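Morning - 2-acetamido-2-deoxy-beta-D-glucopyranose inputs below, output right after.
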Amino acid sequence: MRIERTCFWSMLQALALLPTMALKDAQMTTKKFSEEPEFERPIGNHTFFLGREAVLGCAVTNLGKHKVGWLRAEDQTVLTMHDRAVLGARYSVSLDAPRTWQLRIRPLRAEDRGCYMCQINTQPNMKWQIGCIDVYVPPDIISDDASGDVSVQELENATLTCKATGHPPPKITWRREDHEPILLKKPMSRDFDKVENYVGSSLPLWRVDRRQMGAFLCIASNDVPPAVSKRITLLVNFAPTVKVPNQLLGAPLGTDVKLKCYVEAYPNTINYWIKNRGEMLLDGPKYTIREEKASYKVSMWLTIRQFSRNDIGTYNCVSTNSLGKSEGTLRLYEIKLNSYQEDFNQISVAGGLTEAAKGDTSNFLHSNRIFLCTLCLFAYLYMFT
Ligand SMILES: *[C@@H]1O[C@H](CO)[C@@H](O)[C@H](O)[C@H]1NC(C)=O
Ligand SMILES: *[C@@H]1O[C@H](CO)[C@@H](O)[C@H](O)[C@H]1NC(C)=O
């Protein structure tokens, strides 16, 4: 180390920046030892951003005829000598503040992180001090999977992973793109914890549920703006499941009847209606077929116009996707109008009998109709008198 430093100063002398005679004269005319050059203050450790400029100051008093040089501490590479740069265009030295030699590095690279030495060519021992710079690098996400999609079967495990570079090491935060909470299965439980976000480079999802499907954002941030994010879509594949809110529907002849099914499935389904286990129903003057899709949920409606005796029977909503097929069953029957009910036409379409009420429900309805309508009448009278 010492040899190299000596080397450095020989080089300096060889460049005639510092004639040997002058140095000797200076030493001879320096009467007092207290007039030796001194560092005014430590260089200190500093942080700079990648691509910007790093500035380290070396403040010296009583320099006299001595010279100041900057070296990279790690390998003793000379960067500047007195007032000129020796190595490369990125380094420069300026004497901005009084008696302060400022080493400037621009544009700053990650490999400039490290310690720098300010030296004074005092004899016989050179004086030196060290200061270090840290180079802050904004976060960047490493994409090894361009699509960013993760596709699993329901109840399989899935892990969403995001790797990021940057300095200091970025923090990875996960959240859902739709701002809904992230569902995390509690260990050994069917329940979920709801969290706004999750911190960690991997988001482990145990026995994935369809409700966890969606677009996630992994956000990498450190002290250097801007934070960056990547979108990763979790696709949960499962065969259709069909729910029928009203399995038994009664309607008076001549009315329009609306049948409804709820489907859940992914990937996308093909949905249709069949009547009496036979013909597939088509949208037209008799039937209106409609469906509405929101992520993995589909609502299916079949409206039968001008309900007639021919329409009495069994209807199925059928849903298929690449993973399977499922169907719901609805039974449609006629409600015979009597004199009471004609008064309350609008409330006489009896829907809303669910699975529990299945069985011989039509008899039940018949025997209770009088009773129910008496109740209706009382309610009616109560409201309007
Ligand atoms: C500056 O940083 C170096 C290396 O990281 C460390 O050894 C030194 O103690 C630090 N000095 C100060 C004053 O913090
Ligand atoms: C899912 O992960 C759990 C625990 O990490 C493990 O016990 C289980 O075998 C995994 N299931 C599958 C289908 O890989």
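Note: The pocket of 2-acetamido-2-deoxy-beta-D-glucopyranose (ligand 2) is lined by residues 156-157, 206 (CB under 6 Å).

O.
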